[in-house]
């Protein structure tokens, strides 16, 4: 499975596609027929069964990526049209029809869960857990209790089951695939109830799913408010979102997160890789004056050329705070 990710312009038209896939997982075997000593026939490759199998795997993987990509584009367009639903009634109905034809969120989740298994040798929670262990969080004192983790965008209910002796997690998703997964939009969580509640929050392949750049920013700002002081935010994104965006670079992401109050403590990606992973810790937000001077509330072109349009825009109306009183 690969990661399909699409960028579109402000009208929702597809401008470019980032498709990363792992051909190393396809075992391509080409068997040549050994020519008989006397026969002077041309050597013709005999395509083995493995090749046929790998070709069909590759076609299936390509189709998965295309569906995920189309879904992202349609969702972005839908969110734009929803700004004025009366005006765009017919377009919205058409977009909804196309989303249904694709199989809706259910199909998207099925394809994503295949990705979780195959793409990364398991879910990204392995990396998150490894980092938490490096920070000795599995050896918390008895008085601190288990680490309280909010898993956003959970395709499976049991991602943290192996670590249940020290992790107590709540999986949520826009669409629940299991009774133990709470069907809940993270952006609509009760702010008072969740203020300073969680030791850790996971946003693995969720931020890139969110169609509107300001909602992506709000997601990070709310995650900050929902964490306890010194709490941890795990972020996983398709690498091109950061490595090849017109509006985001690695330094920009770091500075944007710092402007919220997050300090980057771990980072993992490799050149030409598919995924990027980051671990942040909640610290005091910088003074308001420095936050406004370094504005992340608008789109700024940072690189030109053949890039994608992934962008995160902070919402100035969301106040980030470390205190237990809601802003
Ligand atoms: C690509 S899947 C990622 C699943 C998994 N976390 C992983 O790393 O493979 C994205 C999931 O995030 C969910 N999601 C997106 N926005 C969300 C939101 N605002 N609140 C809760 N779940 C959300 C989607 O419904 C989808 O199931």
Short descriptors:
globular; rRNA (adenine) methyltransferase activity; 25S rRNA adenine-N(1) methyltransferase; seven-stranded mixed sheet; alpha/beta; Rossmann fold; 327 residues; 2 domains; binds S-adenosylmethionine
Q: How widely separated are the two ends?
A: 42 Å
The level-1 CATH class of the largest domain: Alpha Beta
Mean pLDDT: 81
Q: What string, H for helix and E for strand, traces the elements in order?
A: EEEEHHHHEEEHEHEHHEEH
- Total number of strands: 11
For the sheet with most strands, the description reads:
7 strands, mixed
| Outline type | globular
State the CATH architecture of the largest domain.
Answer: 3-Layer(aba) Sandwich
Name of the CATH superfamily of the largest domain: Vaccinia Virus protein VP39
Task: List low-confidence stretches.
Answer: 6-37, 44-48
CATH topology of the largest domain: Rossmann fold
Strand order of the largest sheet: 7-6-5-8-9-11-10
Summarize the structure.
Helix content is 34%, strand content 21%. The chain has 327 residues and is an alpha/beta fold.
How would you describe this protein?
The protein folds into two domains: 59-115; 124-296, Rossmann fold (3-Layer(aba) Sandwich), CATH 3.40.50. The longest helix is centred in the first third of the chain and has 33 residues, at 49-81. The strands form three sheets. It has a seven-stranded mixed beta sheet, sandwiched between helices. By secondary structure, it is an alpha/beta fold. α1 packs antiparallel against α2, α1 (49-81) crosses α3 (104-118) and α2 (89-102) crosses α3. It is built from nine helices and eleven strands. 35% of the residues are buried. It is 34% helix and 21% strand. β8, α6 and β9 (227-238) form a beta-alpha-beta unit. Bound molecules: S-adenosylmethionine.
């Amino acid at each position: 499975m690969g990661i399909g990710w699409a960028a579109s312009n402000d009208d929702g038209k597809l401008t470019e596609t980032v498709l990363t896939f792992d051909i190393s997982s396809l075992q391509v075997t080409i068997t040549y027929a050994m020519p008989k000593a006397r026969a002077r026939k041309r050597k013709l490759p005999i395509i083995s069964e493995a090749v046929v199998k790998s070709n069909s795997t590759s076609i299936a993987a390509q189709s998965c990526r295309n569906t995920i990509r189309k879904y992202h584009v349609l969702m972005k367009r839908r969110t734009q049209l929803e700004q004025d639903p009366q005006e765009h009634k017919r377009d919205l109905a058409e977009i909804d029809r196309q989303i249904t034809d694709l199989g809706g969120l259910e199909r998207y989740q099925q394809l994503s869960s295949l990705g979780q298994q195959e793409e990364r040798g398991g879910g990204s929670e392995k990396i998150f857990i490894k980092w938490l262990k490096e920070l000795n969080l599995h050896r918390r004192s008895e008085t601190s209790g288990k680490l309280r983790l909010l898993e956003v965008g959970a395709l499976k209910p049991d991602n943290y089951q192996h670590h249940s002796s020290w992790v107590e997690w709540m999986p949520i998703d826009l669409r629940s695939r299991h009774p133990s997964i709470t069907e809940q939009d993270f952006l609509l969580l009760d702010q008072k109830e969740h203020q300073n509640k969680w030791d850790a929050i996971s946003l693995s392949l969720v931020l890139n799913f969110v169609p509107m750049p300001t909602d992506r920013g709000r997601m990070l700002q709310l995650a900050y408010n929902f964490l306890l002081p010194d709490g941890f935010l795990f972020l996983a994104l398709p690498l091109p979102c950061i490595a090849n965006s017109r509006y985001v670079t690695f330094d920009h992401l770091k500075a944007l997160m710092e402007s919220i109050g997050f300090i980057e403590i771990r980072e993992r990606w490799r050149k030409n890789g598919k995924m990027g992973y980051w671990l942040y810790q909640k610290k005091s937000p910088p003074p308001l004056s420095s936050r406004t001077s370094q504005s992340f509330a608008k789109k700024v072109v940072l690189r030109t050329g053949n890039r994608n349009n992934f962008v995160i825009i902070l919402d100035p109306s969301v106040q980030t705070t470390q205190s237990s009183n809601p802003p």
